[in-house]
């Protein structure tokens, strides 16, 4: 029997929830669905697949590098029905479009494109006191994801699919940020500047455990050491209970970008946010008197 396969990356859980809801929609129509989070699953063999879904959170207005790696390893799959879904906190740019194009180049047949919001645990914004899209995907997002899954099933069964328009390319300021955080710079420059304050680090190993690419190893003193497979997700720094980790994303030079992005997002009536304090690896909502 054929299987529908959904391959995704999710570090914070939002994309995973959307993937699960899409799978529920497909299963309700009798489809056999398997899900693979690239953090803890090897990419599946696609033999016998009747559908391939690819999902990811937008990182820096582009797909995370782990998704590019996965796509790079895919052969041409002529005629395989495929769909793309993304989650984002404030502004996704055209990250979804870039992956839709790759699938087209690999000769797949697009059957859907879906976007959902997901709680935005980007450390640059948290440190400035903003959590955008808190709680997303909320129930309505999950319902929409499930409906999308049902639509996919109907299209597999022959219902018409009208390909949605491509996302508009982002404005200059977002393209500049994307360029600043391109893969070469991350691998050769930024990845070198992750550091641990040895006096503060307790050697708890949390950073090693949560790194999505296994890029962090404990040295002989039990303290973290970083390799070059960094996605710049910043979860190591964000979750460190001792605040012992620093990364290039704390450099003052990035601050104007964060301020500009926050100002644009906070004034967008379609987005919600809460004020937060990020301390010792935890994000706490501020109550009214503090905000
Ligand atoms: C390192 C990092 C970069 C991000 N960059 C963007 C971005 O450029 N645009 C956006 O709208 N959201 C951005 N986000 C928010 C995530 O795309 C969003 O919260 C997503 O739902 C997280 O998915 P996950 O919980 O499955 O990991 C970023 C989050 C992180 C951690």
What hetero molecules are bound to the protein chains? flavin mononucleotide
Main beta sheet strand tally, sense and closure:
5 strands, parallel
Our count of helices gives: 10
N-to-C series of helices and strands: EHEEHEHEHEHHHEHEEHEHEE
- Taking pLDDT < 50 over at least 5 consecutive residues as the criterion, the unreliable ranges are none
Strand numbers in spatial order across the main sheet: 2-1-3-4-5
Number of separate strands: 12
- Our Rg estimate from Cα atoms comes to 20 Å
Q: Termini separation (Å)?
A: 55 Å
Give the structural class.
alpha/beta
Instruction: Report the principal-axis shape.
Output: globular
Strand content: 15-25%
Average residue-wise pLDDT: 96
Helix content: 25-40%
Detailed description of the structure:
32% of the residues lie in helices and 21% in strands. The protein is built from ten helices and twelve strands. The protein starts with a strand and ends in a 6-residue tail after the last strand. Flavin mononucleotide (FMN) binds next to helix 1 and strand 4.
Keywords:
291 residues, alpha/beta, 10 helices, 12 strands, binds flavin mononucleotide
Question: What is the element layout, followed by pairings?
Answer:
Blueprint: E1 3-8, H1 14-27, E2 33-37, E3 49-57, H2 65-72, E4 81-88, H3 95-105, E5 109-117, H4 123-126, E6 130-132, H5 139-156, H6 172-180, H7 183-188, E7 195-196, H8 206-210, E8 216-218, E9 224-226, H9 235-239, E10 245-246, H10 255-266, E11 273-279, E12 282-285
Parallel strand pairs: 1-2, 1-3, 3-4, 4-5
Antiparallel strand pairs: 6-11, 7-10, 8-9, 11-12
Helix pairs in contact: 1-5
The protein binds flavin mononucleotide.
